[in-house]
Each structure stands twice: as C-alpha cells, then as structure tokens.
Amino acid sequence: MAAPIPHGRAVKPGRLLAVVGDEDTCTGFLLGGVGEVNAKRQKNFFVVRKDSTLGEIEEAFKHFLGRNDIAIIMINQHIADEIRHLIDKHRESIPAVLEIPSKNQPYDPSKDSILKRAKGMFSAEDFR
Amino acid sequence: MSKARYSMGNKAVTALQYPSDMEAITRVVIDPSKDSNYEEFRVLRSNISDRIDDKKTKNGEEIKSTVRRRKGESGDKTTVDKLAQDLDKMKMSKKEEKANQIGNPLNWFGVLVPPCLRSAQKDFEKAINICVEMASLQQEIHWLIDNFRSTRSQAECNLDNNELADVTTEKLQENEENTTTPQEIGCNT
C-alpha cells in the first residue's frame, strides 16, 4: 500500500533507507543522499545524541518499522544494543534491519541479532 | 569528514546544517529473487536534473519554442540550427549545474566545500551500495533459516513415523493373531 500522495508531488519509485545513528553516521548517509522529509514533516533519520533518552530511540525505531515507505533501517550497533529487545522481536523481512559499526565502536558479529539467530539453529546434537 | 570539519570549523559539519526540507536521491527498490521466495534490494539513484525538470517544465517549453523560431528563419539554416543547439546546450548545462547545486546534499555545507568532504560523499555512496547488498544477503539468510527449520522438522517427523512403523512391524511378527495398522502421527510443519 502506498503512502498518501501530497498534492502536486509525483510518486517516487522505490523506498527509503532509514538511519538511526550518531551525528557522524547520519550526516554521512545524508551526504550520500538518503535523507528525506515528507509532506507530514516526518524524517527518515534519527540523530542519537548524548542526551537522547531510551524512549526517544525506541519511539523513532518503532516509527520507522511502522512506515510502509521504508525498506531498510540502518542502526549503529551500540545503539542497537540498547533496543535489542525491539530488534529481536522484529521478525518481518521488510523493513530489513542492518546493524552497522560507528566511528568509535567496531562491529561485533556476536551481538548481531540475525547472526545470533543463525548460530542458534545448530546444537551439538546436529553434529552427531 | 573529520578532515573537512577540521578545515571548515567545528560547527560547519554538523546536524545543524541539515535543511528543513529534503528529498532523497538515493532509494531502494525491492525485487523478488529469481530462484527463491525472498526479496532482494537494489539501489536506485535519481537524476538530480530530472527532479528539477519536474518542477520547472515551463522553462523547458520556453527553450523548445526558441529552437522552433530559429528553425523558421530564412538564411543559412545549418548555422542557425547549430547556434540554437549550442545555446540550448549552454542553457541546459547551466540548468543542470543549478539543479546539481540544489539537489546535491554537499551544498548544505556551503558553496565551496573542501575536496575531503566530496570524497567523504563518494565513500558514503559506496557504503550505501554495500549496505543494500548486505541487506539482500540478510534476507537470504532469513529465508534459509526458515527453510532449514521447516525441512528439519519434516525430516524429524518422517524419522518418528519410520521408527513407529518398525515397532509396529515387530509387534505384528510377535503376535501373529492380532492385526494392527500403523498409524501416522500428525506432524505440524
């Protein structure tokens, strides 16, 4: 189902990439051209600052999950750790949630929700 | 980006430079995978000048009408046509330049930006391509996990049925007078 079309704007093909990250991550991806503010003044990015609360991050993430014009949500892994319960609960394929490293925190595959699910498939019994 | 911030100043490359109104030039298209039932993602970059054309078709019509007028004049038509084409090209390139300036997120940070910020933009564009590829691979992993689980549970179900059939056959052999039919356990897959 397409989002309501504002009067005078043509329908754009494709969906958006959302970003939940620190300032440098968001600025970088916006430089790459993914940023958009729609007719309802809703952004497809959320800049997580030092004073951002857990509630604000959760609300932004849930908002992106609920939108039907977002295909991929990119989130810094250290921020994903704070809302791990929400990410693990998300089982739909669209939007896809992609955990990315930040400037200060390198990527740790053992924390990634998708890889944890894949790892949990196999137990010692499978290899008998 | 840090280098650009160092040369331009601490407050020059921050979230404060984001405009209040922006439109994405990089989007993602969802394609169904050829072999399997999962979806793949593909990057779609819109042409910045096309977006400006949508908003400014009036100018385009004026340019076309100029060409028509020139072609109608008497005299050396090839020279006039060439001049008209060159003029159009100049107008279009200026228009494209203006379009690039308006649509390019690089211009949020000023008219003259350092080359390190340009290279940061190119690097992030490459990073976006890689991220979209990774998201497609993630979809494939999801599909494989679900497929593996359903296949495994089916296999376990069949194994249980075979074991039960063996046990029943043994009982039949022990007790020749009684006849029982093996019953299959219903499997939830």
Automatic annotation (TrEMBL), chain A:
One of its GO terms (cellular component) is proton-transporting V-type ATPase, V1 domain. Transmembrane segments: none annotated. GO terms for molecular function: proton-transporting ATPase activity, rotational mechanism. InterPro entries: ATPase_V1-cplx_f_g_su (IPR008218), ATPase_V1-cplx_fsu_euk (IPR005772), ATPase_V1_fsu_sf (IPR036906). The keyword Transferase does not apply. Keywords: Hydrogen ion transport, Ion transport, Transport. PANTHER family: V-TYPE PROTON ATPASE SUBUNIT F, VACUOLAR ATP SYNTHASE SUBUNIT F. NCBIfam families: V_ATP_synt_F. Belongs to the V-ATPase F subunit family. V-ATPase is a heteromultimeric enzyme made up of two complexes: the ATP-hydrolytic V1 complex and the proton translocation V0 complex. Subunit of the V1 complex of vacuolar(H+)-ATPase (V-ATPase), a multisubunit enzyme composed of a peripheral complex (V1) that hydrolyzes ATP and a membrane integral complex (V0) that translocates protons. V-ATPase is responsible for acidifying and maintaining the pH of intracellular compartments. This is V-type proton ATPase subunit F. It comes from Trichoplax adhaerens.
From TrEMBL, chain B:
Residues 170-189 are annotated as: Disordered. One of its GO terms (molecular function) is unfolded protein binding. It comes from the Eukaryota. Pfam families: Vma22_CCDC115 (PF21730). InterPro entries: Vma22/CCDC115. One of its GO terms (biological process) is vacuolar proton-transporting V-type ATPase complex assembly. This is Vacuolar ATPase assembly protein VMA22. It comes from Trichoplax adhaerens.
